[in-house]
Every structure is written in C-alpha cells, then in structure tokens.
Amino acid sequence: MEFVKLSIQENVAVVTIDRPKSLNALNNQVYEEIIAHLEAVEANDQIKAVILTGAGSKAFAAGADIAQMVHQNAMEGRHLARLCHRSADLLETMRQVTIAAVNGYALGGGCELTLACDIRIAAENARFALPEVGLGIIPGGGGTQRLSRIIGVGRAKELIFTCDQIDAQEAWRIGLANHVVPQEELMDYCMAMAKKIASKASYAVSIAKSAINTSQNVDLPSGCTREQDLLGLLFATHDKQEGMEAFLERRAPHFTDF
Ligand code: CAA
Fold it and tell me: Which residue of 93, 125, 182, 210 shows the fewest CB atoms closer than 10 Å?
C-alpha cells in the first residue's frame, strides 16, 4: 500500500502512517489503507497486539488532509467522517490490543486515532490537539465522544473549544498519555509492552478489553453481570486450564487459544 505500511515482528503488528511530507495527514486513501491493514491484522491469529505510529520524527499524524477537505462538499465530508470512525472503531474493538506510539504531532484526526487505541505512549516531542473548530468544523473521528471519556468533560471541552495544543507531559498529567518516553526509545518501549501483553493468554486479554469497553456504555450492574458471564465462559477455555496448571506445576504457561 502507498501511505500505510504494515510490518510484523513476531506476534506484534506495526502499522505506520507514511506520508511524512505532509506530516502524515490523513486523506481518504490513508484511512482506507489503515482500515484494510487493521482488518487483515484482526483476522490473523498469529498477531496479538498492534502498534500504530507515524513515519518520520515530527508527526504521528497532523490531522485530516486539509488540502483534500477544502474541496469537499457535505456528502464527501460525511464519507470522510465515516472512514475516520471505521478506523477508530476497529482500533477500539478489534480483538488485539492497540497501542498508539505518538511520535510528534497528533492533531485532529490523528489525535482521534490515538483516542481509539487501548493505550497511548507519548514521545517527549508529542503534541496533542483537536484544532477543528479553528477550521470551521468539529472533530469528526470520535473526538467529541472519546476525549471526554478519557480526560473528563470539562478538560475535553476546553481543548476542543480553544484548539490548544498540549505537550506530552501535560497529556500524561491529565491521563491522556499512559507514559512519556524519550523519542529514540518510543518504539522499543511500545514493542516491549506489546510483547509483554502478547505473552499473556490472548483470548483472556481480548475478553478483558471487551469487558472494559462495555463498561463505558452500560450501567455498573449490567457491566458487572456481563463480567461474571465472561469469567464463567473463560473457565471453559484451554488457556485457563493451561495457565492455572502451569502455575501449580511451577512452569511457564503455553497459551494457544488465540
Ligand atoms: N493537512 C494537509 N497538509 C498538512 C496538514 C494537514 N492536516 N498538516 C500539515 N500539512 C502539510 C503542510 O501543508 C506542509 O506542506 P507543504 O510543505 O507542502 O507546504 C507540510 O505538511 C509541513 O507542515 P508545516 O509547514 O505547516 O509544518 P510546521 O512545522 O510549520 O507546522 C503543524 C506543523 C503545527 C502540525 C501545522 O502543519 C498544522 O497546524 N497542521 C494542521 C493541523 C490541523 O489543523 N489538523 C486538523 C485537521 S482537521 C481534522 O483532522 C478533521 C477530522 O477530525 C476529520
């Protein structure tokens, strides 16, 4: 594919947005390629975690492509929003864990892709913002919905209404970034985390992701009921038997369910 590259290291996929001349700006083709890669990754049993990042040292992605959007009408704008949402939905709901390795600007649609990832790791030069209202639009890839769920309504409104950029330390302080690391260590840090997660029972990790996601959309009793049912279900898996027997036999588990 032209603008989004996929590489696989053992059981971790690295998806790289690769349009560095325009700071990895996201046009329709970029979104379509992200979707195609994520769909292929989700279908691949060998892959247990995904790292999403941007090529070059300056940007994760500086937002939707303004040079494309300037010519688009309402119908085309809606189509773009649907592509943004399809990409974000995949990152949020795919069975593998998704980690955003934020290596510079994560603005607009770029920021929204990070919001849909399970975990955000920021390089020291990362900068986050939702600058859309400065362009006469609103965040269209889930920004008005997911940011407030992560950092709270008051802070989300301030960032969206002012378009202010925040740096990596501020992102960490308000809970937007899980960790801040030196830029040259970013990919190694994310890879180590991805491999640690991949070493666990992947089916259980995937069910935990689904249970946590559900908790954002339902009341506590409904979420807790679902959690009980899911735990019961996991008692029927090979990996549960293997993980517990390995513990009792003081050996490393060999997980195989997914
Ligand atoms: N779309 C298209 N091109 C972009 C771009 C974008 N979002 N962001 C950067 N570029 C291009 C620039 O036009 C420039 O191209 P040329 O070299 O051909 O002129 C190149 O990338 C380098 O950018 P700058 O010269 O501007 O670099 P800088 O270091 O001076 O500034 C920046 C960096 C602060 C990120 C600045 O580029 C910027 O503000 N970019 C736009 C950010 C933005 O508003 N993004 C939100 C888009 S709206 C959106 O995303 C909607 C949605 O949710 C669907």
Answer: 182
